[in-house]
Amino acid sequence: MPIIYLSPSTQENNLYVNGGTEEEWMNRLADAMEPYLTAAGIRFSRNTPDMTALSSIRASNAGNYDLHLALHSNAAPEEQYGQARGILVFYYPGSAEGKRAAQLIANGLKTIYPLPNKVRAESTTSVGEVRRVRAPSVFLELGYHDNPDDAAWVQNNLDAIARNIVLSLTEYFGLPFLEPQFPRPAVVDVSWGYLNIRDKPAATAAVLAKAYDGTRLTVLNQWEDWYVVKLDGMVGWANSAFITLL
After folding, report:
1. Most buried among 55, 114, 175, 227, by the most CB within 10 A?
2. Same domain, 137 and 226
3. Can you list the alpha helix ranges (DSSP code H) found in the chain?
4. How far apart are the C-alpha atoms of 81 and 148, rounded to whole Å?
């Protein structure tokens, strides 16, 4: 299963014109994304508010992540304070996968942002979380927090934005998008030795683990004849015909 490093802003001094900080609202957005990520079977690690951009980069590079996603909002230069609007989705110019992820996220956000012509994906070499991260990286500048309309759009649409970003991530990883469900306890029920837990909902997908008959696991979601399951902290897909809900 894919795993991402989720890096919401740690910039507590960047104030939203309508109240709160960039750190607060981007962490709220990350909170809103978590149920959608889990529902789709996308694993994640996440920085903490006491970290910095540098320590977030180090933590990302210490793991084996399929994507690094940094969540931020923008600020206009002082002479244009409160006037600029728009969303920028940055990627590293030498990263084909970073560019693909950025374009998918930008295209998705165009469908919910009130000014879709002001949403664009751009390459950059000036942002550390793009330039210095080993994994393909996307650095999202989600509107201008010094603009009342952009700030209010973020604050009033956290769930819609979170859902939209994760929808783009499922397209990036080739996974079905699923709405969050309540986890359900279950047990493996096979007449042979074990059930394969796979990377994707397909009989030909890579096997992540083997769950023997009688093994307890948690069903997180369902797509067609496949369950998203959690087994000993690992998330994968398993054929629902061989799992009994408890």
Report:
1. 227
2. no
3. 22-40, 53-62, 96-110, 128-131, 148-156, 158-173
4. 11
Which residue range forms the structural domain that includes residue 12? 3-173
- Name the domain count of the chain: 2
Phi/psi-derived region of residue 174, left when phi > 0, alpha when psi is between -120 and 50, beta in every other case: left
Q: Coil, strand, or helix at residue 208?
A: strand
Judgement on whether residues 22 and 72 belong to the same structural domain of the protein: yes
- Is residue 13 classed exposed, middle or buried when 0-12, 13-18 and 19+ CB atoms within 10 A define those classes? exposed
Determine how many CB atoms are found less than 10 A away from the CB of residue 44: 18
Residues 157 and 222 in one domain: no
Cα(190)–Cα(20) distance, integer angstroms: 53
Q: What distance in Å separates the CA atoms of residue 244 and residue 126, rounded to the nearest whole number?
A: 52
CATH of the domain at 238: 2.30.30.40
Residue 230 lies in a domain: yes
Amino acid letter for position 14 = N
Residue among 71, 46, 49 nearest 59 (CA): 46
What 8-state DSSP symbol labels residue 21?
Answer: B
pTM score: 0.92
Query: For 104-124, how does the pLDDT look when each residue is reduced to its tens digit (9 = 90+)?
Result: 999 999 999 999 999 999 999
| Adjacency order of strands within the sheet including 243-245 | 207-212, 194-198, 234-239, 226-231, 216-223, 184-188, 243-245
Residues in the chain: 246
First to last CA, the chain: 25
- Which of 145, 173, 201 is the C-terminal boundary of a domain? 173
